[in-house]
């Protein structure tokens, strides 16, 4: 029980990053009362997209979502996957089962090589997970604030 309390207190822990994203997505979901109003609203202005996408000197990638509604659905879907897990995928198994199936066993090497490789893989994916969750949190907050500014403000 002590371990979970320590992990929740550390602002750099995976649980904290996950909780921040889930909280931002929940706030987005509670704020956006009529998601269909987001249809055909462009996702971002050119200026605001440049400022958000160049965070931490990372290259920007064009979004596949065409409007705020699709982006809202994406963020909500990711939050649900995080909370409920990945159930069954199109290929007929869970994401974890598919990942384990596709792992190649080492051809030449002992337990030391395998342990080092697993540790490297873990740190690589953990770093990626932190980066993605941080970006998704920023995007959920941005979508919420933009909804308040553009759609919520006109009804008040």
Task: Note the main attributes of this structure.
156 residues, 67% helix, 0% strand, mainly alpha, 6 helices, single chain, elongated
Structure report:
By secondary structure, the protein is an all-alpha fold. It contains six helices and no strands. It has helices spanning 2-9, 14-31, 46-53, 68-84, 95-102, 111-155. Helix 2 (14-31) crosses helix 4 (68-84). It is elongated, with a radius of gyration of 19 Å. Residues 49-54 and 57-61 have low confidence and may be disordered.
Query: Roughly how many Å is the radius of gyration?
Result: 19 Å
Strand percentage, roughly? under 5%
Rough shape? elongated
- Give the N-terminus to C-terminus distance in angstroms: 46 Å
The major beta sheet can be summarized as: none
Q: Uncertain spans, ≥5 residues at pLDDT below 50?
A: 49-54, 57-61
Summed over residues and divided by their number, the pLDDT gives a mean of 74
Kindly state the number of beta strands: 0
Quickly count the helices. 6
Helix content: 55-70%
Order of helices and strands: HHHHHH
Structural class: mainly alpha
Describe the structure concisely for a colleague.
This protein is an all-alpha fold and 156 residues long.
């Amino acid at each position: 029980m002590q371990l979970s309390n320590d992990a929740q207190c550390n602002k750099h822990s995976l649980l904290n990053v996950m909780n921040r994203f889930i909280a931002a997505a929940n706030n987005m979901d509670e704020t956006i009362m009529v998601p269909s109003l987001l249809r055909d609203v462009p996702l971002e202005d050119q200026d605001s997209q440049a400022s958000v996408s160049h965070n931490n000197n990372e290259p920007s990638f064009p979004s596949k979502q065409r409007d705020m509604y699709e982006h809202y659905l994406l963020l909500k879907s990711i939050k649900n996957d995080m909370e409920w897990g990945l159930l069954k995928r199109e290929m007929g198994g869970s994401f974890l089962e598919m990942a384990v199936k596709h792992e190649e066993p080492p051809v030449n090497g002992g337990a030391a090589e395998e342990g080092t490789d697993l540790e490297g893989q873990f740190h690589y994916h953990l770093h990626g997970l932190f980066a993605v969750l941080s970006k998704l949190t920023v995007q959920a907050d941005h979508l919420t604030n933009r909804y308040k500014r553009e759609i919520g403000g006109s009804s008040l």
